[in-house]
Specification:
Helix content of chain A: over 70%
Order of helices and strands of chain A: HHEEHHHHHHHHHHHHHHHHHHHHHH
Number of strands of chain B: 3
Shape of chain B: globular
Radius of gyration of chain A: 23 Å
Number of helices of chain B: 26
Number of strands of chain A: 2
Strand content of chain A: under 5%
Distance between the termini of chain A: 37 Å
Strand order of the largest sheet of chain B: 1-2-3
Structural class of chain A: mainly alpha
Structural class of chain B: mainly alpha
Shape of chain A: globular
Strand order of the largest sheet of chain A: 1-2
Largest interface: A-B, 92 and 81 residues
Radius of gyration of chain B: 28 Å
Oligomer: heterodimer
Chain lengths: 558, 637
């Protein structure tokens, strides 16, 4: 086995990087950014190398390492990844450098220093790696809670006008969930102690049998924490606030990765540890999931704030993921994990491009924009790609995962699946409505010519967080001059800068590549999902067709 | 007939899709650098694809050839491969798409010459051709679905090509959404196939569909039909197609007349082994076809917008095709034959309409046309030939293929045969009426030309450049000859026999000659009626207000939009608004309120919120210790 400590390094490197960046004196912003970008690229490299070292036909958990931590309670600093955790680490590895690049020219809010912002991002990265790589339940819990701190400060210090409210709300919701989970974690330990030696190690806990009634209680303890994190209706209302007020980079990591810890937790902890309870509660969870798909999609349509809209679309997407997980088939589960990755990429891109638009117009309101496509075609094109990925158009990555979730859920849960499938119409509606209102039509709102001279030089918009760059401002001024010269009364919206193109290009490329050739990721994910499906009593080999077509099957295989 | 692995040139049939796709990629990513030659590249890729399609078809000789490319999605029991099936059915579609597609690309060079975004236009057209070819060449339902939504995207991009116009942006969105309603049906059909049969390939599904219960087969048939209705603008999802005319006219010709909108017919014909097993689903297909045929024909009589008349004509003609595929084995080849001839003459008619608009400063109101025959002689002749082909003038294309459908409907026998045959004949009469009206208002009578907008000069019509007229001439040749070639000279029925089975000699209820004479007579009546109502009097420049209830309904396309709005759109908007309120006040309020109640009072919560994270951490730890202690006590005790 490969004994190189990939996972430990992926935690230590960004944590040390965070400390170094935080220790930099004020005014060394550029150096802080360069260090941060470098560190995050190292983590990406480690993630890629770890993937290369991972053997898809090997043991479930690989790259493992374990150091005893609190011996009295059997807590160890145990790391290891299965295919599910590994793809999440890849997602973290990709998104953090992108976020750092996207926040490169952000203006600080108030007196805060941007070096602190980048330090928090790196610390967050370390925590996120830890939460996915932990194979000890207590260690998982520690990272699960610790992750809140950097995100709290990212929202509360660098967010929009209502950042305080949003940060506190985010923190309280998570805290309540975490508290309930802690009780269940300790309960789990007690149960294992009653059956022999007490342990927090996942593989030990996975092997023991738990009384069905106790399972139910413990399941609920974990479930509520995860259902808040990957918000299921009706526990979702913190997300639109947090997503809207967080700085764009923070929002990408919040919705793209942090919330996935919830769905990851369903799959890693709820299903295998509490299989009986999972089966008992599945209909209720599925009802919440499908309700979320439809309800959040309708709500997304009714939003006037772009960032809130994107947040609501995520709630709908989390419904699809939960559907795939609780359908208990290998196809749907694999689709759900793939969905977690794809959603991080697609919604990440959507948040980024919305942020770039907001940086230009200085408003989050949809009604303040109109006709942007005519002036900034590249921005509009990237916006469209992100939107199409969000509505799961074939050819984009999201189609593969949504299709797998739905086709895999239909055999076991036809009614829920049919209802969720209706959600794809609503997805088209909320994406295209926003796209039409902001990008199409004649120049409107802020894009119209009124008061263009006054706006041209202002670097930062009132939404805070994401400010226009100096270069952008210059471009605006130049373009405005041209516009005035040609006597059009339309304010020129500068198209994407080179930096912005470099930031979105990797995500656009991933959306298209994973849309056409997703199989390598599926091969990584499937074994771990199959094992989990087997734990809850499903057929790990996949759905068995209702009709025996053994005669016809052989022909079809040709 | 067994499918064999591809050999020789046929194994390169993936080039058909790759060529236009590469064209689209180069044009989209290349940016302004490609502005100068982008349109040439775009045309060249489609022309090259046509050559490949032709070469592949010549090599086909009554086989079904499979090309396996790579694994697309393989998880659990689901195995979706990126594989192509080149058989006689996909071959005729590939030829139609690339052939008509190449002509329309050439035409667009002229039509879009003055548009600053011409390069992007060609990129989208290339993208469309690639997606459409994937749709017809895929060897499984998932590949079809990918192409299916891919053409939907291309259609969206092209309808909204002039996106500064709110009407174009709205029409594009409407088309996409209504298509998605249909797509849900197609997706669910695929889910059912997978759950029941464990496969989504044509070969696997068709090989084992006979093992399914009758009700399941009917369900699959109806779900596929829903998909087909969305894409093909059939009742009840027909309302998007006329609005799609907001796109540039070459788009209307290629996508919204000749190819994409006929994908529904392809889907049902391709799924023939499924429909063969379900009489119920076939009957529904028949009814959809018959109803849509009449809706389109009636609405076509009342509109003054030249493109909308042609659009409703398309809706109506695809109704004929649905009617034909609904008839089962006797109708499949007839439907495809009509689809091909319709592809020629309707594309030609749209290109002619584009030429007229070109001459008339982009106006579409036929009440502002008149007397254009002399000014636009080439357009007049080519358009006229397309017109004669469409109304079924003896021995031109439409005559052969439409008559075949009407005959097949009558041959069904019994009451239903007479009703369906009667509807089809009546539709032919209405077609003759609205098309003659269009001809008279556009090309004959007095000139009623007027400025397109205040301040614009009155148009001085001029014939279009030869880059535009040449494709029109070629298509008009097709309009004249294709029907005879496909029905009499080289019967399509025999070419398609490997797919649909050998044609049976039908027992005719009415002698074919008699049908031909009857249909021609009804057509002549339609022409005569149009001359009586429109041709011999002055055409009012403004549409008369005082008209009969029937005309008023027809002008509103039988209130399809009004019904959609009052049934879905407005309730949806109310629901959305109500839910936003509920979520902001109700759900959020309830959860916050609960939290406050747990914390004692909202005031204390407010105070807690002003504290530091330290306090929370301490509270968290304290709470955890309490809970853990309690748990330990309970379990240990």
């Amino acid at each position: 086995m490969n004994s190189f400590p990939f996972l430990l390094l992926m935690i230590v490197v960004p944590a040390v990087g965070a400390a170094v960046v935080a220790a930099l004196p004020r005014g060394r912003d550029l150096l802080a950014k360069q260090i941060s970008l470098g560190v995050s690229l190292v983590v990406l490299l480690l993630a890629v190398l770890a993937t290369a070292a991972f053997d898809t036909d090997g043991d479930r958990f690989q790259l493992t390492s374990s150091v005893s931590w609190i011996e009295d309670f059997g807590v160890s600093f145990a790391l290891g990844v299965d295919g599910i955790a590994l793809v999440m680490l890849l997602l973290v590895g990709v998104l953090v450098p992108v976020v750092i690049g996207a926040s490169w020219d952000d203006e600080p809010v108030g007196t805060r220093s941007m070096t602190v912002f980048f330090a928090w991002i790196l610390l967050l990265e370390a925590m996120m790696v830890g939460v996915f790589a932990a194979t000890d339940v207590f260690l998982f819990y520690v990272f699960f809670e610790a992750m809140l701190v950097p995100m709290y400060f990212l929202i509360g210090s660098f967010g929009g006008p209502r950042r305080q409210y949003a940060a506190v709300k985010f923190f309280l919701y998570s805290l309540v969930g975490g508290l309930i989970m802690l009780a269940a974690v300790i309960g789990l330990y007690v149960v294992s102690a009653n059956q022999g030696e007490g342990s927090f190690a996942f593989e030990v806990l996975n092997a023991i049998d738990i009384d069905p009634d106790v399972q139910k209680l413990l399941f609920l303890g974990f479930f509520v924490a995860f259902a808040i994190k990957a918000p299921l209706v009706p526990l979702h209302t913190w997300l639109p606030d947090a997503g809207a007020e967080a700085p764009v980079g923070g929002a990408v990591l919040l919705v793209g990765v942090l919330d996935k810890v919830g769905t990851f937790g369903f799959l890693r902890y709820c299903l295998p540890l509490f299989p009986d309870a999972s089966r008992d509660f599945a209909p209720y969870v599925l009802a919440l999931a499908v309700a979320g798909v439809l309800y959040a999609a309708l709500l997304a349509m009714g939003q006037s704030d772009m960032k809130r809209l994107v947040s609501y679309t995520s709630v709908a997407h989390f419904g699809f993921i939960a559907l795939g997980i609780f359908a208990f088939t290998t196809e749907a589960g694999t689709g759900a994990v793939l969905y977690m990755v794809n959603h991080g990429i697609a919604t990440g891109l959507l948040f980024l491009v919305v942020g770039m638009l907001i940086a230009r117009g200085g408003s989050r309101r949809i009604a303040d924009y109109g006709g942007v496509a005519a002036q900034a075609p590249v921005l509009a094109g990237v916006f469209l790609v992100a939107g199409l990925a969000s509505l799961a158009l074939p050819g984009t990555n999201s189609f593969v995962s949504e299709f797998l979730v739905l086709i895999g859920s239909y055999p076991t849960r036809p009614v829920f699946t049919i209802l969720a499938t209706v959600g794809i119409i609503l997805a088209a509606l909320y994406v295209l409505l926003m796209y039409q209102r902001t990008m199409h039509g004649p120049a409107r709102g802020l894009m119209d010519g009124q008061g263009l001279a006054a706006d041209a030089g202002e670097p930062a918009g009132p939404a805070g967080g994401t400010g226009a760059t100096a270069a952008t401002a210059t471009a605006t001024a130049t373009a405005t001059a041209t516009a005035t010269a040609t006597a059009t009364r339309t304010r020129r919206v500068p198209d994407l800068s080179r930096r912005e193109i470099a930031v979105v290009a990797p995500l656009v490329a991933l959306i298209l590549v994973l849309g056409v050739y997703p199989q390598p990721l599926i091969d990584l994910i499937e074994p771990a999902v199959a094992a989990t499906v087997g734990d809850v009593g499903g057929d790990p080999g996949g759905v068995v067709p209702d009709v025996d077509t053994s005669g016809a099957e052989t022909e079809a295989g040709n | 007939m067994d499918t064999v692995p591809a050999d020789g040139l046929l194994s390169a049939s993936w080039l058909l899709i790759a060529l236009p796709l590469a064209g689209a990629a180069v044009l989209l990513l290349g940016g302004r650098r490609t502005d100068r030659w982008g349109h040439l590249l775009g045309t060249a890729t489609v022309a090259a694809a046509f050559v490949v399609a032709l070469a592949c078809t010549l090599q086909l000789d009554e086989r079904q050839v499979a090309v396996d490319l790579f694994t697309f999605i393989d998880s659990g029991s689901l195995d979706v491969r990126a594989g192509l099936l080149f058989d006689p059915l996909s071959a005729v579609f590939a030829l139609l798409i690339t052939g008509v597609g190449a002509l329309i690309h050439v035409y667009s060079i002229g039509y879009m010459a003055h548009d600053p975004r011409r390069r992007r236009f060609f990129a989208y057209l290339n993208l469309f051709v690639a997606a459409m070819l994937l749709l017809v060449l895929g060897d499984n339902y998932v590949a079809l679905y990918v192409g299916w939504e891919g053409v939907g995207l291309a259609s969206y991009l092209l309808i909204a090509f002039w996106h500064e116009r709110p009407a174009a942006a709205t029409a594009a969105k409407k088309a996409f959404i209504m298509n998605r309603v249909g797509d849900v049906g197609l997706a669910l059909a695929i889910f059912v196939m997978f759950a029941q049969l464990g496969t989504v390939t044509y070969e696997g599904v068709f090989g084992s569909v006979g093992l399914l219960a009758g009700g399941t087969v009917t369900a699959i048939g109806l779900l596929l039909l829903l998909g087909a209705c969305g894409k093909s603008g059939q009742f009840p999802l027909q309302a998007w197609l006329p609005d799609a005319m907001e796109g540039p006219t070459p788009v209307s010709a290629l996508i919204h007349a000749a190819t994409m909108v006929t994908a529904g017919v392809y889907l049902i014909a391709r799924s023939a082994p499924i429909y063969d097993l379900t009489e119920t689903a076939r009957t529904v297909v028949l009814c959809v076809g018959a109803v849509t045929l009449m809706i389109g024909a009636i609405a076509g009589c009342a509109y003054d917008d030249i493109k909308k008349v042609l659009a409703y004509s398309t809706v109506s003609q695809i109704g004929y095709m649905f009617l034909a595929v609904g008839l089962g084995p006797v109708g499949y080849a007839a439907a495809i034959a009509h689809l091909l001839t319709h592809g020629f003459f309707k594309a030609g008619l749209f290109l002619g309409a584009g030429s007229v608009m070109h001459a008339m400063d982009d106006q579409v109101d036929m009440r502002r046309f008149g007397g254009l025959a002399k000014k636009l002689p080439v357009t007049f002749v080519t358009f006229g030939l397309g017109y004669l082909a469409l109304i079924g003038f003896p021995f031109l294309s439409g005559y052969w293929t439409k008559d075949a459908i009407i005959e097949a409907a009558l041959d069904r026998g019994g009451v239903s045969g007479w009703v369906l045959g009667g509807v089809a004949v009546l539709g032919a009469g209405l077609t003759a009426f609205y098309m003659t009206r269009l001809m008279l208002m556009t090309f004959f009578g007095k000139a009623r030309w007027a400025p397109s907008a205040p301040g614009r000069p009155t148009p001085h019509p001029h014939e279009s450049p030869s880059v535009m007229t040449a494709p029109m001439v070629l298509l008009s040749i097709g309009s004249v000859a294709a029907g005879f070639l496909l029905v009499q000279a080289f019967p399509l029925v025999e070419w398609l026999a490997p797919v649909f089975g050998e044609p049976e000699e039908a027992e005719h209820v009415v002698a074919p000659a008699l049908v031909g004479i009857a249909v021609t007579a009804v057509m002549a009546l339609g022409v005569l009626a149009a001359w009586l109502f429109v041709g011999r009097r002055e055409v009012p420049v403004v549409a008369p207000e005082r008209v009969s209830v029937v005309t008023r309904a027809a002008r509103k396309a039988l209130y399809a939009d009004a019904i959609n709005e009052s049934l879905f759109m407005r309730p949806g908007q109310w629901l959305t608004r109500a839910l936003v309120w509920v979520d902001n006040r109700g759900v959020d309020g309830a959860v916050n309120g609960m939290a406050a109640a747990l914390g004692g009072s909202s005031a204390r919560l407010g105070r807690a919120q002003t504290g530091f994270v330290r306090t929370y951490a301490l509270g968290m730890l304290g709470g955890a210790v309490l809970v853990a202690g309690a748990l330990l006590a309970v379990t240990a005790g």
